[in-house]
Write a structure and sequence with these properties.
This protein is mainly beta. It is built from 4 helices and 21 strands. The chain is globular. This is DUF6850 domain-containing protein.
Length: about 525
């Protein structure tokens, strides 16, 4: 049933787009579009599919945009799942957002870029997790038995600068993220997190078009978390989870104040061309460690998480007559180890007596994609991008033996039609995907050790092993109203996912904005 729906959606979008491609074959009776709308299409459409590198390289920003470009937007986003993939991350979110980005050519050989973002809303359907930034600190979260929603405020500021000096290019980027999440009913967690990152980059021209780049980065992460109970008759027991339903029995109870402190490092190597044609490749290695401390017990460290991430991509971009094409291979490998520290009774100021690393999370992903851009005329573009990805995830606790391992094959297809008019630009995009399980393994020994969260983990396993089908539609319309603005635009995005266990998920986003 879901495949037929996917097929029908695909046919409807193609049928709606036929007038756009047909218009390209007619004589161009409209006046030529303004250059500003051409620049909007380059930033929103071309670079979205034909960006050369994975984003870690700094000096490649010198040649990423041909012209200065700025965009400001505000909007509303809502997504929800009938049964979450991971209940500790929640079933959805509802928020208002404001986002601004700019890429300015300050001179022929220099460029500056920046981004600002503010979000205000709430995350919903969160179970067995009272912390923020789950993917950053998991599995070592504070939890209780309540399924809840948390109010959320998020800030992001990022800026960078790069300069070309003959054959040498230098650049730097600084980013700052801040998140505040809280509840005003019991339990009342309040989490404040800060994340500061700095990256430095250098590139060298080994030929007239070929550049070789080196990027290095470092950052600091901090989260302060405190949980209060105002109702004296309510549940006042907190659990410190250790992964896959295990808890730190020694600190079960009223240890309600914790903090997470972490640091991370990155190094990357890349090669690319200034004219965006030919071979582009990059590889980077990132390492992060996050430590959990009990602020209510003299900042004693109880857990550590260590994560290593390898990423690499290689692509070839070419052009032939009215076609531009790109073939890309992406690979990623993540390994995360969790360390538990064991202490005495605390009478001697908590002396550590042992440690162990029983928790392991691993993820491997490989994706092959082919992107083709067909220019029917200077006014009408069609982009088609088929992809196939293979992803393996393994979450494991050594003793007692607990494991959730899945392997998925994910073929997908993206298509986008873009049509320029004299004073406007219309873009319509469709994305479809099918996730097919190739292998799964779920073991949950000795559930009686801590039986309260067992049902939640069994639901997680059922969802993460389920096959699914995706369909998403995106429509954006830009119109030039005054010369001071490149365009005013409205954008609508809607997506739906059908699982073969009869669960569903959806997401919608509506935004309006201006480009400068």
């Amino acid at each position: 049933m879901s495949l037929s729906r996917l097929y029908h959606c695909f046919l409807i979008v193609i049928y709606c787009c036929l007038p756009l491609t047909g218009a390209a074959q007619e004589s161009e009776r409209d006046s030529l579009p303004s250059h500003s709308l051409v620049y909007v299409r380059e930033a929103d459409t071309y670079l979205r599919y034909f960006s050369r590198l994975n984003g870690t390289d700094i000096t490649s920003n010198l040649d990423e945009f041909h012209h200065s470009f700025s965009q400001i937007r505000a909007g509303y986003q809502h997504d929800n799942t009938s049964l979450p993939l991971d209940a500790q991350q929640g079933s959805g979110a509802e928020l208002m957002f404001f986002r601004a980005q700019s890429h300015m050519k300050t001179s022929k050989n220099a460029v500056a870029w920046g981004e600002a973002c503010y979000e205000n809303g709430r995350r919903t359907g969160i179970s067995w997790n009272l912390n923020s930034d789950y993917k950053r600190i998991f599995p070592y979260v504070i939890a209780d038995t309540t399924t809840l929603s948390m109010l959320r405020e998020y800030y992001l500021f990022r800026g960078g600068y790069a300069h070309q000096l003959n054959k040498l290019a230098l650049g730097a980027e600084l980013s700052y993220r801040s998140t505040t999440e809280y509840r005003d009913v019991d339990p009342r967690p309040k989490n404040t997190s800060l994340d500061v990152q700095v990256r430095l980059g250098a590139g060298y021209a080994v030929s007239a078009q070929r550049m070789v780049g080196l990027t290095a980065g470092a950052g600091r992460y901090n989260q302060q978390s405190n949980v209060l109970f105002m109702n004296p008759q309510g549940n006042r027991v907190l659990y410190h989870l250790m992964g896959l339903g295990m808890q730190y029995f020694c600190f079960k109870g009223l240890q309600n104040a914790v903090k997470y402190e972490g640091s991370n490092y990155l190094i990357g190597l890349s090669t690319y061309t200034k004219n965006r044609m030919g071979l582009q490749a990059s590889v980077d290695l990132a390492y992060e460690t996050v430590q959990k401390r009990l602020a209510s017990e003299r900042d004693v460290p109880i857990c550590d998480a260590f994560q290593t991430t390898w990423r690499g991509d290689v692509s070839w971009i070419g052009q032939r007559k009215q076609w531009t094409y790109k073939v890309t291979l992406n690979v990623e490998a993540v390994e995360r180890d969790g360390q538990e520290r064991f202490y005495d009774s605390g009478l001697t100021n908590y002396q550590q007596i042992a440690s162990a690393r029983p928790f392991v999370f691993q993820r491997q992903m490989m994706c092959l994609s082919v992107t083709a851009l067909r220019r029917f005329s200077p006014l009408t573009w069609l982009i088609i991008q088929p992809n196939v990805a293979y992803e393996v995830q393994n979450t494991q606790y050594i003793m007692p033996v607990r494991q959730l391992k899945t392997a998925f094959m994910i073929p997908s297809l993206q298509m986008k039609v873009s049509r320029l008019f004299s004073k406007s630009l219309l873009s319509v995009g469709l994305q479809t995907a099918v996730g097919r399980q190739m292998h799964h393994h779920f073991v949950f020994d000795e559930p009686e050790l801590f039986d309260k969260p067992v049902e939640m983990f069994r639901n997680n396993a059922a969802m993460q092993q389920a096959n699914y089908c995706d369909a998403a539609l995106e429509v954006r319309y830009d119109v030039q109203l005054i010369k001071a603005l490149s365009s005013v635009f409205v954008q609508i995005t809607a997506g739906h996912r059908w699982f073969d266990n009869h669960q569903k998920a959806y997401n919608t986003e509506l935004s309006v904005g201006v480009t400068l």
